[in-house]
Amino acid sequence: MVEQNLLLLLVLTPFVSAALAATLPVGSRNAETWLAGLTMAVVLGVLAVLYPAVDEGGTITSKLEWASSVGLDLSFRMDGFSWLFMVLVAGIGMLVLVYARYYMAADDPVPRLYSCLLAFAGAMSGLLLSGNIIMLVVFWELTSIVSFLLIGYWYHRQDARDGARMALIVTATGGLCLMVAMILIGQIVGSYQLEDVLAAGPQITGHRLYPVVLILFLLGAFTKSAQFPFHFWLPNAMAAPTPVSSYLHSATMVKAGVFLLLRFQPALGGTDAWFQIVTGAGMITMLLGAFVALFKHDLKGLLAYSTISHLGLITALAGIGTPLAIIAAVFHIVNHAVFKASLFMAAGIIDHETGTRDMRRLSGLAHAMPVTATLAIIASAAMAGVPLLNGFLSKEMFFEATYVWNNGSPLDNWAPYIAVLAASFSAAYSLRFIVTVFFGPKATDLPHEPHEPPALMRLPVFVLVAACLAVGIAPQATLGSWLTSAGMAILGPDLPHFSLKLWHGVNPALIMSLIATGLGVIIYLLPRRWIDRGEEGLRITRALEFARFFETGLQFATVTLPRRMLRRISATGLQGQLRVMVLMGMAAAYFALGPLDWNITLPEISSRELVFALLWLIGGACALAAAWQAKYHRFAALILTGGVGLVTCTTFVWLSAPDLAVTQLLVEIATTALLLLGLRWLPKRDEEIAGDNNFTSRFRRFRDLMIAVTCGLGMTAIALAILLTRPGSSVGDWFLRHSYVEGGGTNVVNVILVDFRAFDTFGEIAVLAIVGLTVYALLRRFRPALESVERPRPQVEAEEQALEAYLFIPAVLMQWLFAPIIALAAYLFFRGHDLPGGGFAAGVTFALGLLLQYVASNVRWVEARLTILPVRWMATGLIVAASVGLGSWIFGAPFLTTHYQYLELPWIGKVPASTAMLFDVGVFSLVVGAIVLMLIAIAHQSLRVAPRSRPTESEEQS
Length: 958
Known about the structure:
Blueprint: H1 2-23, H2 29-54, E1 60-67, E2 72-78, H3 80-103, H4 110-129, H5 133-151, H6 158-189, H7 194-198, H8 201-205, H9 210-224, H10 233-236, H11 242-248, H12 253-263, H13 265-268, H14 272-294, H15 299-320, H16 323-354, H17 365-368, H18 370-384, H19 390-403, H20 410-438, H21 455-473, H22 475-491, H23 508-525, H24 528-533, H25 539-543, H26 546-569, H27 574-593, H28 607-629, H29 634-654, H30 658-679, H31 695-724, H32 731-743, H33 748-756, H34 758-780, H35 786-789, H36 793-797, H37 800-804, H38 808-816, H39 818-831, H40 839-856, H41 859-865, H42 870-890, E3 900-905, E4 909-914, H43 915-939, H44 941-944, H45 953-957
Antiparallel strand pairs: 1-2, 3-4
Helix pairs in contact: 1-2, 1-4, 2-3, 2-4, 3-4, 3-11, 3-16, 3-21, 3-22, 4-5, 5-6, 6-9, 9-12, 11-16, 12-15, 14-15, 14-20, 15-16, 15-20, 16-18, 16-19, 16-21, 16-22, 18-20, 18-21, 19-20, 19-21, 19-23, 20-23, 21-22, 27-31, 28-29, 29-30, 30-40, 30-43, 32-33, 33-34, 34-42, 34-43, 38-40, ...
């Protein structure tokens, strides 16, 4: 049980720290660093405790029930592979967070950076530890969203906004494809649990939908790991701060795709399609990235394309899929994360201390920054695959995996040559990075005088470079057992014996490595001067700029094409668009319902039905009259619309639905009052609109009337058919039987809302909160027209003495009614679980009491006596409702599971008590806050407008 709780701690700790980091002051860089560093230290400590349980193929699982009936539970799972990835996320994360303390400027909003970095660590932890494939996709998309915020951190810069948008569109679209693939996999396997999916490899690969699943799955993985042809977003993401690039683009986000490929290789791999697509994409990406990196002048641009190349290497290994290739892929994931994170940090130090990342301006920095130069040279050598460094070992394992015979296909035969050529370009751009930046004459036109950074800023680079040396010199002692655990987690009993040692004799892998290194030196030396003096990239690479193709396609798909379609098929104006939507809905209903049997026997009509029909004749007349009066007489139309609401309320009473009747009545009162207050600020319509009575206008109104009548008659027919059809057994019968037994209440409607379907209610109150905030935001910027600022005509025409007593008696009555209305709200709330009422009805009633006070008196008088903070009411409501749901997890029950029992109270006796009442408190609080927030937004218009009036004729003449 302890291990399962520690898994939850690994996921939740970064998110909790992210929320705390966001609340710290802007200038608290030290506090942010301590908070974030301690968070990562806690994660590393928990990982150290859990390692014995995942060593030698062990697995830890933790499960929280959510929607077990459809296979969706909050399931977490850790094995040796995910444990190793978690070490990278937490270890490199800690170093990046320390580095960010010294990299970021004093005026940068550091809390936002640290909060997003910690949230990203939490999203990655959830992705790595997900035991449910649908939950994995949720965390997958969460990484895309948080990375969007991190890449666009300096949102005042155009390149940051463009890079963030591009990364989000590409990776999130891939995530949607991944979601469809996971749903299909779950349907094929019959389970969404990762354990079941990984064990069902033959079942998946033998299914007729396997090609579809594979393509959708690979689209998700390739977009996240920047594989060809989706590689273009990664270089544009370099607009992010260097700490973000060091973390996201070395150890975490871009590695999520290759993690997914290796994790699902037992389930989806082993086929010819897997080999050809995955290996082919990896080889192309590896070669393309290495080639373009050689011609980049921006340090981070070179490292970005280098990252693309190495990700292609790992992808190619995942596509080859042999046990040795899988081990090599895992090994290179670790090695690349270490040396690439250190190189990004070194590039950031150079930019920070010199003011530029342009390699054409950088030269001879080894003189001014010898320690930084030494660290960067070692990391670059590891990237090139120089012996005694970690990159050399995994590169040789890659060469060996490509050299051995796999399936004899043309791609298999060409793989060794492509690998050597790509490795040659890797050695060439690594050598260019070293020689151009650190050697040669001292640079003379730098923005800043170069010097060494603070020691603590250099410390993370030192730690990572030391790891490169340690793994390169003693690989078995440093990573041997961890790689074994990770390999067993992926391959199981198929894990072969492998040896991590420096010398394996003269073999094909060593020969390939020597050829690649020598060829890389030649590739660098021959065009060296031409590259240094030339433009960024070659003419062909500039012509094949995939980012430009993406922007052009996006512009066409989101702007050009919609405008063309809008001109040809869309109606102009809101009324025309609504008309098209209604007609399309009518057509769809006709084709869907037309073939059905409509031979329904009508019941005998008694006097009771005639009274009901008369009632709706009144309602229909009110609706028609409201539509007739809406243009010139808004007040009359509003009153008539209220009549329709009252008829609806009476209908609920007629059909024995008192809960709906109470809610309808209260909502009708609240909306009518709010709309009435809003009408005060709309411009007047005293004069007839020109052309309102010509033939075209009359025909348009007649046409719309016919459409409305047809639609109304159709809905009436559907409702009548449903009411006259004898129902079979429905879910309502189940609710009636179990409402009291399982929910502890006799009011079935309320028990459904706060117990059986509480999750739906939680979503609805969240939507209500969004609506309230949106209305408030819109009305804050609303400024009424000049004619609306004046007092209403009755007040203008009244005498001053009469104006002082305006609404005096109704105002006194409304103030007296405040206490009874509050008591009524409490009465409705506490009776709601057994009788008509509940938190929603009580909230609307309470808000009506406050609304009447605003109507009875002026805004300043009310707010001087009542402190109303509606946003806090809304936040409290959401927090309380969510806390009730989360509290059920403590007892091992699904989210929002309620508990009830009878309590013995002094002098009262036994009273029913349920946790659903606490949830209803959240509903009550949020409803009050949302309605009052909209009320305040309208009421404060009188405070925003100046007491101005129309200028007189004499003033206009003057």
